[in-house]
Fold this sequence. Notes:
Blueprint: H1 15-28, H2 30-49, H3 56-65, H4 67-70, H5 72-81, H6 89-94, H7 96-99, H8 117-127, H9 131-141, H10 145-170, H11 181-186, H12 191-227, H13 229-249, H14 253-268, H15 285-296, H16 332-373, H17 384-391, H18 402-411, H19 415-432, H20 443-453, H21 456-473, H22 481-501
Amino acid sequence: MDPSRITATIRPRSAWESIDLGFALARTWFLPLWLCWWVAAAPLALATLLPLHRRPELWLLPLWWCKPAFEALPLYWLSRALFGERLPVATAARRLPQALPPRLWPQLLWRRIGVSRAFSMPVTLLEAPKGAARRARLRVLGTSAAGWLTIICAHLETVLWLSASLLLAFLLPEGIPRLDLAALAVDSASMADWIGSLLILGALSVMAPFYVAAGFALYLGRRTHLEAWDLELAFRRGRARREQTRRGHGRRGAPAAAAVLLVALALVVPLPPAQALTPEERLTPEEAHTAIDAVLAEPDFGGTRQEWTWVYVGNLADASDDDSGDGPALPDWLIQAVAVTVKWLLLLAAATALALLALRLLRDLRARAHRRREPPPQQPVQQPAQAQARRGGTHTALPLDIPGAVRERLAAGDSRGALALLYRAQIAQLRDAGLDLPDSATEEECLAAAGRRARPEQAAWLTRLVRLWQGVAYGHRRPDPAALESLLADRATLMQGRRGDA
């Protein structure tokens, strides 16, 4: 696409402004777009008419489902016309195989039910990406307004169908059989059902140019926003003006010299003196007034006319005349009493509503303050075994000989269980040291908490353990026995240092 050839104004637009631009393009080129849609739809309509002539609703179903194939040719014509190439409809019809997408069957299968079809169709037809490239391109260009466009156009198709049905049902002249609306909707064995199917197909064809043009305008709007077409065109126009100015400098000398020569001649050559009027040619004041009046009497210079208009001046009928009104009027004191009563009733209702709202707010504040003063519920005292399991982050107690239990599980081939036991034992040790770690804490959260509260060597040992545990638990790798033995030896060193500090 060459943005310099586009016939519309290129500027950043919102999604709804782009849709409005598309509708304006559809109104401008409605006839060729509509004919292009019928060029693609008519062969299928005629081919399915003979086998499905007894079931008009089944005849309409493939036409409705193949709408993406019918919209390809209008989009092809519009993409050329917007950039200055307005093809005749006959020429566009010959290019129908070229206008269809390279792979039509995805458009008629899972992509048929997509609500952003009008926006994704230009990407499919004009850029022709495939697979992951197409999905990435749509993620970059994507806009939520494409789904709303499909929903709005579907409702407009329904409105057009209902309007045409009501037009046939109620505006037919007398003497012509009326159209039965119930048969139009449900009776598949009557002529009314065929009329309803044709009206639906007509509504689809009328909305198709607007749907295609609005989706294409959305596509152009997103590309203008992402690729800065407006800035590119501004730079191109500035460069063209600069080149034109540069070429014009060489041709300015001769006109400028000619202008200077004419001014010099006008200053040197004297002008002939103005001829004064003779006394015979001069007019007296009376003759001048007569001439002026004669000129002003012409129709081109004025005239007077009278115009009569109706002006409302109020009710001039005599209120005391009993025969002028339809009935006796209400006295003024009664009208005033009713108005005052209604006013005070409204004020009373408003005051009552405010009082009830204040009471409700006061009650909520008291309930919140009462809940704040209540003591927290007492937690049941855990037994030693339960407390030890809680500190270990599991519901089973930890063994007394942690290294021996780890080596037993390694000998049994349970490397995951061995590392999990060592990790739980270290978490329990951190909790015993006063570190608050919830059961839901992840490995990284445990490392962060240990780095803030534990000793540096203890935090470094826990980091080595966590990395080895992650490789086994998530990477499904067997642990290095030497690394595990090193962890056990360093743990024993840390435990001895802890006892020495104590």
